[in-house]
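Good morning C.,

I know you're traveling, so I'll keep this short. The sequence:
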Amino acid sequence: MLLRTVAISLLLASLSFAENLTLALPDSLENLVEKATAQTMALDYKAALNTAQALKAKNEGVGCVIESIVRVSMYDDLGDTTALYKANESLEKCKAQGLWQGLQMFELGFVQSETGHSIKGAMKTRSAAKLFEDSKELDPQAFYAIYAYYVDQSFSWLPFKSDNRSHYLSVLDSASKVSKRFWPLFLTPLVWMYYDKEDFKKGLELSERGLRKSPNHPVLLQIKADMLYRLKRYDDAARIYEQSAESYLKRTGKSIRYWCSALNLIRIYNDKGDQKAAQAWRDKLGDPAYKALEKWMPGSLMDDLKKRKLL
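The tokens, ready to paste straight into the viewer:
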């Protein structure tokens, strides 16, 4: 009798969880999430944080997750490492439920990886992905696709191993088109997946799609320049990065994105054959402000520059 009771309890619990395989919200909350995303992509972070607070008042867990996503965006754009650490602190404590708890764990995994805890972050991302795997909704499927794509890529060398990367690319492409809440979170990894495939033309197309949704977004502009560089459109890439460096210097001072511009301009001008311009940007790296932020520079960019002896 006891075993039967336990079995029934487990069945009811599993059915209850299955019903929670959703990121859907009531319209009033849905509108606030979409508003926070729009404000974030318009670079109005203060307004986005205020919207997240309003969301928190209605649903503490959802509001906490959205607030953390805004803070991660502040780090990504402004180089605000304090915002990243605040996001980590909040995500550790969020009281989200259902698949929103999955998104909480997914974001926490990214933040942990970004702050040097890559193994811990990978484990957290894996746990989150498992929650998304069986959902029938597009947004959770897209979050799962981000994780599953790289898993399949890491095992692609094994014979007879199933490879569903084309499917995951398709899911992310669809979600990045229609999701009003999370399109930036889907579009960005999608671009880098095509970058890894060396399909830079597709990467450029996707970055331009993002810029149509969020014109002149500074991070998307840098991504576009990366694609142009790989397509050997050096003048176009240099123009965007020169403008980006100037813009970030005015907006944020000598921040992470400013120095990313400098590093990219070194290799763009080098490959273009303009050694004088490359050296002019290389000379700026003697600034103590760069040394203080060097550990935050993208690993793949630094590896490429060092391998080619451009630093």
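Safe travels,
E.
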